[in-house]
């Protein structure tokens, strides 16, 4: 593999690292935020969901600037938003200012969930595309693990009310690094061709080590078909019905697994199952570590086994682990024995492993593949918008519903994953090893 291609992919995937860190870091602050700002279960849920509301807006609005400014320049703005959000949250003077800065961070998360995997997909040859785009997911879970570990270390410093501020503020360092490293990356060659900059695109392909530059450029120009289509043409039309339905389905199922409820509320869930405060934080680290290990495994095999097989295996793991978690909460209620607590921990570790091997690694790869060049940015934005809309809904409602019954919550997630398994088996196409322009033809798009 070309070293410049690999380095560029890793740098772009730092947007995923910040995505993961920002997503998980609030899990260590919820108890202090509840106390400092006198939050109820409903207002705590809204505080967590504030960032997710930002991700909905960020994901929905990222497509147009990435088409106009380019993928790389858009990522530069994403890095700025991450930095300002981290610093702002660390100095928040009241609940409303915290919400505003969390919302800003959410905008960055939503935009990076669109632009980072799309950029990597557009610079990658078909045979490496799955694992290179999956570096984004690897970085997402690495960011989550670093956030869990950072939260645990900061908690041991016993800083009092400054604890939650430092937990948020740490994110400013990788955000600044991401901003600086982006200057060493090239523009997307597919975006350059869409802008009429053919010579620049050829130069980028040569730098990235493309094998047949002339054929690559010809295929991209044919897929754009700008004499019959506009780069600004609407996404929501019959022509793109199939990829739109695929994007909406995979993004909806991703969140109906309850994955973000676990990511945002991991320590809280373990406390519900009888763990102490420090033990709950350590168990959250175990969740992050399991996620990282199994994502590494998925990254190595996604271009060998393909997207569908990983999704089928992940769905089965989801169903079993979520059903077991629901059973534990129904069995023990609020009086967990040590066996019951261990059952919840093991079940949720199986759950996170299933997610890492299936939906976690597949979703961003699949979304970056199924739309034609001329609408890829807006198509990916639609998929990410759907993902974050349901993430906000799940994360806002989880603390309220969990107070009624933890069993009901996890039973619902398990049933949703049965539906996902049916969808994967009956509907989801395989995209492994297929050039982006060929996928367009297979979906019946001229």
Write up this protein.
- It is a single chain.
- The protein is an all-alpha fold and 446 residues long.
- It has one domain (3-442): Growth Hormone, Chain: A (Up-down Bundle).
- 80% of the residues lie in helices and 0% in strands.
- It has 22 helices and no strands.
- The protein has helices at residues 3-12, 14-25, 30-36, 41-61, 63-68, 71-90, 95-123, 126-156, 163-169, 172-181, 189-194, 198-208, 213-224, 241-256, 259-272, 277-305, 307-332, 338-357, 359-369, 376-404, 406-426, 436-442.
- The model is unreliable at 226-230 (pLDDT under 50).
How are the SSEs placed, and which strands pair?
Layout: H1 3-12, H2 14-25, H3 30-36, H4 41-61, H5 63-68, H6 71-90, H7 95-123, H8 126-156, H9 163-169, H10 172-181, H11 189-194, H12 198-208, H13 213-224, H14 241-256, H15 259-272, H16 277-305, H17 307-332, H18 338-357, H19 359-369, H20 376-404, H21 406-426, H22 436-442
Helix pairs in contact: 1-7, 1-8, 2-7, 2-8, 4-7, 4-20, 6-7, 6-9, 6-10, 7-8, 7-19, 7-20, 8-9, 8-16, 8-19, 14-19, 14-20, 14-21, 15-16, 15-20, 16-17, 16-18, 17-18, 17-21, 18-19, 20-21
What is the CATH superfamily classification? Answer: MFS general substrate transporter like domains
H and E string: HHHHHHHHHHHHHHHHHHHHHH
CATH class: Mainly Alpha
The major β-sheet equals: none
**At the third CATH level, what is the topology name?**
Growth Hormone, Chain: A
Q: In one word, what is the shape?
A: globular
Query: What's the helical proportion of residues?
Result: over 70%
Radius of gyration over alpha carbons?
21 Å
N- to C-terminal distance: 31 Å
- Specify the structural class: mainly alpha
**What fraction of residues sit in β-strands?**
under 5%
In terms of per-residue confidence, which ranges show pLDDT below 50 for 5 or more consecutive residues? Answer: 226-230
